[in-house]
Design brief:
Elements: H1 17-20, H2 32-37, E1 42-49, H3 55-64, E2 71-75, E3 78-82, E4 91-98, E5 110-111, H4 117-120, H5 123-139, E6 148-152, H6 159-166, E7 176-186, H7 190-195, E8 219-220, E9 226-227, H8 233-240, E10 243-247, H9 255-268, E11 273-276, H10 300-310, E12 319-326, H11 332-346, E13 364-372, E14 380-385, E15 388-393, E16 403-410, H12 414-446, H13 482-492, E17 497-501, E18 505-511, E19 527-531, E20 534-540, H14 542-563, H15 569-580, E21 600-608, E22 611-617, E23 623-625, E24 628-631, H16 635-645, H17 652-666, E25 676-682, E26 686-689, H18 692-701
Parallel strand pairs: 1-6, 1-7, 2-6, 4-5, 7-10, 10-11
Antiparallel strand pairs: 2-3, 3-4, 8-9, 12-16, 13-14, 13-16, 14-15, 17-18, 17-24, 18-25, 19-20, 20-21, 21-22, 22-23, 25-26
Helix pairs in contact: 11-12, 14-15, 16-17
């Protein structure tokens, strides 16, 4: 007998004495006893996989294994209950599911439409399973329902349509909760199932965001496998999975072939855990198939590690995994903005705030997962399947690592999605700050007798380049210093600047905005030398930057003259930030330099005894050391790209390409050797700004796409 066939296991005949005995009457659905039974939630795991992947063999294995669990298995119109363990004869009850109104119903018979729960389960399906739980609990010796429920789908079922039905809202008081989706894969036939749709599958052209239509195109994967651009049932089953069981590994003789197969799976789903097995035998049920809690949390570190292991999203052109980083901490207003963005993405299949030159793209999101780091209260978890998603509190108590969103779907492009989310968040924040300014104007009218200084109507964010406050004690109603807030806005309007520190040196790159064809581009200086071993890139008000740079140059020269040694990079940055603090009325008799904060941020790069160093100096007078940092108007999207691409082993040449690639993504104009500027600081050559010929050579290395 071939145990790998997708057939239900042998069932006990309904005429046997097990079902001939008089069962206890069904409890009244309105009784208190039945209501109490639903309080204890039972986890439900969906097991799916293509034809011949070994799902039924796995179910048989679970039913016969000595695990001491009380498990109900629903498959192909049958419900099996294992109430004991250690004896295959203890599969004591078989409950037929009938769609006939004439069927005489007993407490062990449930009536569902079409007789197949795998393809016809709707809201009534959840209610039917809850009824089964209540009946079994009322008739069991301990009065408790099952420990687990396992739902096996048919080989051609799309679990993405099934998951939302069991993802029941807490307010409905369901006795079920969705534990996760497990997808079995026939390792030896994976490529065939991904590339050859069944007769009733519709070939779907995958037009990636940001690329031309791939319809009709084919490409070769490593090892001669052909990649087709249609979406199959196997693609959708893998995309929805929380755990993927790579089964029948014994049929793949070479380890390198098995590794290639696993990489193909990982390229489709970068979220799921992958287990290798043969004959559908799992070493343990808990955490492998059961107790997954896939919809309760988000392990960013674990997911990042799994993505790093493979990182070959190009292996499958149809479905892939995209990660978007969420830098910083979110306010409640930011969370609402993100939720609106997700609604547009998942419900309307629309990317908000797309660039004007962007075309309408064909894409589809199958799975969404993420963590949002909040300024106050608990962090948030994002869970979604297709258009259904929720944002819940993160009760894991894990650290505040950087937030991120992970999407699995067809035709997804990270650059396009980041280019949509970043301006959406930034635009909402800018509107709120404008609103705060108006609030300040209204408050000054009410509290003028207290001489509390608030901005006038002319002192809005849009006029910060020409009009700023004259006092260093002007606070917003929320307690923020308006002058510093305006300075930060000036930087957000400035050119994008990027710095990357490598073991060979530090690289600086800046966007040069050429506002007129008559402007000589060489006169636009965004990167300047402070000393022979220190340079900086700027974003914001260029006149303010000139004052800070001249101060830093004097400090460097004085230190060399007095101590006969070069000024350290950190000490130079400290001197710049000390100057930034001297605005307003001054302190302790010290003359103030400015009546307002400097409206500029600097990336200070250098090489000293500590090696290559990169610092970010803020208008507030604080500074931090970074491996890679972006400032300016495109900083959010650029920083996300750096977060994803940077690694400690980067060479200076690789850093050049990464800087240009990142600037290309965030610049509104087409990148060329005239509108960008690069400089490097190395141990041997010190600070050097790239000449025109050098810039052209580096830009020519940049891939066309």
């Amino acid at each position: 007998m071939d145990i790998d066939q997708d057939e239900p296991p042998d069932l006990v005949d309904t005429d046997e004495t097990v079902l001939q005995s008089n069962p206890p009457p069904a409890p009244d659905p309105t009784s208190t006893q039945l209501q109490d039974l639903s309080i204890s939630k039972v986890p439900l795991t969906i097991i799916t996989g293509y034809l011949g992947s070994g799902k039924t063999t796995l179910v048989n294995y679970i039913l016969r294994a000595q695990h001491g669990k009380k498990i109900a298995v629903i498959l192909n119109g049958w419900i099996l209950i294992k109430t004991k363990f250690g004896n295959t004869a203890d599969i004591e009850q078989s409950l037929s599911i009938s769609n006939s109104d004439s069927t005489t119903s007993t407490p062990d018979f449930l009536s569902l439409a079409n007789g197949c729960i795998c393809c016809s389960v709707k809201d009534a399906g959840v209610a039917a399973i809850e009824e089964l739980m209540a009946r079994h609990a009322s008739s069991s010796s301990d009065g408790k329902p099952f420990d687990y429920i396992i739902l096996e789908t048919s080989g051609l079922a799309d679990p993405g349509n099934l998951v939302p039905l069991f993802w029941v809202d807490e307010g409905l008081g369901s006795g079920l909760y969705l534990d996760g989706v497990v997808t079995l894969v026939d390792a030896g036939n994976l490529f065939r199932s991904l590339e050859e749709p069944s007769d009733d599958e519709k070939a779907t052209p995958t037009t990636n965001m940001g690329s031309q239509s791939a319809k009709g195109e084919e490409a070769n994967t490593a090892g001669g496998q052909t990649k087709h651009t249609h979406e199959t049932v196997s693609h959708r089953q893998l995309a929805t999975a929380d755990v993927i069981v790579l089964n029948k590994c014994d049929t793949v003789p070479l380890d390198e072939d098995l590794t290639r197969i696993e990489k193909r799976v990982r390229s489709i789903n970068g979220l799921a855990k992958i287990h290798r097995t043969a004959f559908s035998q799992i070493p343990q049920l808990e955490t492998f198939l059961l107790d997954l809690h896939a919809y309760d949390g988000f392990d960013a570190v674990d997911i990042a590690a799994r993505n790093t292991e493979s990182g070959h999203s190009h292996l499958d052109p149809t479905i892939g995994t995209v990660t978007i980083y969420l830098p910083g901490q979110f306010s409640n207003d930011d969370l609402e903005t993100l939720e609106n963005w997700l609604r547009a993405l998942l419900w309307e299949v629309v990317l908000l705030n797309q660039r004007k030159d962007s075309e309408t793209k064909d894409f589809e999101v199958h799975r969404t997962k993420g963590r949002i780091i909040m300024q106050e209260g608990k962090n948030k978890i994002v869970q979604g399947v297709r258009e259904v998603f929720e944002i819940i509190d993160d009760d894991s108590g894990k650290g505040n690592e950087e937030g991120r969103l992970v999407f699995i779907g067809r035709g997804l492009n990270r650059e396009e999605m980041e280019g949509s989310l970043s301006p959406t968040l930034h635009g909402a924040r800018s509107k709120r700050k404008l609103s705060e300014t108006e609030m300040g104007r209204e408050v000054v009218e009410l509290r003028s007798r207290h001489q509390v200084r608030y901005p006038s109507p002319s002192q809005t964010v849009s006029s910060i380049h020409t009009h700023t406050l004259l006092s260093n004690s002007t606070f917003s109603p929320e307690g923020r210093l308006f002058q510093v807030e305006y300075s930060l806005e000036a930087i957000k309007l400035g050119s994008t600047a990027i710095g990357i520190a490598t073991s060979e040196g530090v690289l600086l790159g800046v966007e040069k905005r050429v506002t007129s064809t008559l402007l000589e581009t060489s006169s636009v200086e965004k990167i300047v030398e402070i000393d022979s071993h220190i340079g900086c890139a700027m974003s914001g008000l260029q006149a303010d930057a000139r004052s800070m740079i001249e101060h830093a140059r004097v400090e460097a020269q004085s230190h060399t003259f007095n101590y006969n040694e070069r000024l350290g990079v950190e000490s130079c940055t400290q001197a710049i930030c000390d100057l930034a603090l001297r605005f307003g009325e001054g302190a302790e008799g010290e003359e103030s330099v400015m009546s307002r904060p400097f409206g500029v941020a600097l990336l200070v790069a250098g090489w000293d005894e500590g090696g290559a160093q990169l610092y970010h100096a803020e208008p507030s007078g604080t500074f931090y050391r970074y491996d890679a940092k972006a400032i300016g108007s495109g900083s959010e999207g650029a920083q996300a790209e750096l977060q994803n691409e940077f690694h400690k082993s980067l060479t200076l040449e690789e850093a050049e390409l990464l800087v240009l690639k990142t600037l290309k993504q965030v610049m509104e104009e087409k990148l060329d050797s005239k509108n960008v500027q690069l400089a490097s600081v190395t141990k041997d050559k010190g600070f050097q700004i790239y000449a025109d010929e050098e810039m052209k050579k580096v830009v020519d290395k940049l891939p066309a796409n």
